[in-house]
Amino acid sequence: MPRPARLLPVFFAFVISFLHASEPSRAAPLAQTTHGPVRGFTTTDAPAHPIHIFKGIPYGADTSTRRFQPPLPPTPWTEPRDCLEFGPMAPQPIGYRTEAASSGQSEDCLRLNVWTPALRDGKKRPVLVYFHGGAYNGGSVNDDLYDGTRLCRRGDVVVVTVNHRLNGFGYLFLADIGGPAYRDSGNVGQLDLILALTWVRDNIAEFGGDPGCVTIFGQSGGGAKCATLMAMPAARGLFHRVWTMSGQQITGRTRENANATARAVLEKLGIAPDRIHELNTLPVDKLREAMRGGEWTPVVDGLALPRDPFSPDASPLSADIPMVMGNTRDETRNLIGGSDPSLFELTWDELPARIGKSVARFLGDLSPDHIVAEYRRLHPDYSPSDIFFAATTAARSWKSMVVQINARAAQPGASLWVYYLDWPSPVDGGKWRAPHTLDIPFVFDNLAQYRLTAPAAGEIQHLADLMSDALIAFARTGNPNTPALPAWPKHDLTDRPAMIFDKISRIENDPRGAERRLFSTAPYIQPGT
Description:
This protein has 529 residues and is of the alpha/beta class. 32% of the residues lie in helices and 14% in strands. It is globular.
């Protein structure tokens, strides 16, 4: 019989092993999904408030064998699957922050990420589901800018971020050329998002979330995806609030426009319409190259998307869903100015032509000379470059928001709140001011993760508090008001009240109304349509 002293090391090893096995929520949290168990990890930076994180959970099967077809659920698995790193991003052109995605690109891209304060604790936390920007062409959520840790901690909410098919892989309309086998091809990227929301409905209670309290939110193309889902019957009931940031979708693509794009892709590839099936087996790189330069948006196909989301009015399908729409004051300072430094040094002589060249299709009968003259009257302190960015923002990015606001606010019984982010970033001498994408680090409370906010993070944390708390309040109650904000009224077309998020946040009625009226006669044409 062994001596007791010799049993001590074995006993201690057993105890340590038992203790580790009994604390999976901290060392390696496990969750059971409808497709199989997943293993995540737990934050250690704030031991009193740990957040459990699961990255790269498959919500759909590999799409490489189902190109241009609706997504299917993933193949089930039985052993715990490590979900510790982001999954692949969708195939896309170079750019769109691809350098930030160590996970690379793949058609096996139907993955989502979850941040939660607790698993299986019986609580019903609001769920925030984020769709990324990059139009419908590129981008991903594989970036620390979209990390949900701070939102979870401050609001006791569950955060989900989603990757899905993009560009022609998600929106190449082949139904009229290829027949019934391709009936949904123009909207499979949106159907991916619907499958992701179905996953949320079926699984989020395991992650401590409430499937009956889901808010979808997104910036730029992500906001447009939200707006499109509001008009898609298959999405009905899968979300209950909508918060969009600089992203609108007034109209979808017409079949005629989408067919022209499809024919152009086939021509580049040298594929005749009667050999369309060859698209299914082409190498990814060859297909991606043929799609380069195309404009991609959902298609009004009469099926998945039966009508335009916000034209001639707001889709009645989502009239009962509360909505927040936001926009930044200087959208085009990086949207257009980011690729052309000369725009920051314009002369008065150059200005009209540069406005005309940049936003011609958004001007209608408005002449650039008239626009310049009116801005000089309204803002005599503006430089030529100031006028260029103000006018192109008002004609292009802000105009689409105004159109969507008008349609939504006119909808009987609809709940809508509007905001503008005016805070000017001091980075690079202040040249960017409040550009496109600036609201992302504020609503995620991730100021340190964005170069235009990181240097000023300490002095503007109060603004991140206001914006992220408003998002959390909206997710919880359907109303963005918080005790720290000035009373934020619903939007109406008489006073046009809007929250101005700035160093001192405030409510203004019809902000920049003169600019809005200046461009009111110009018809808005959705890019890509």
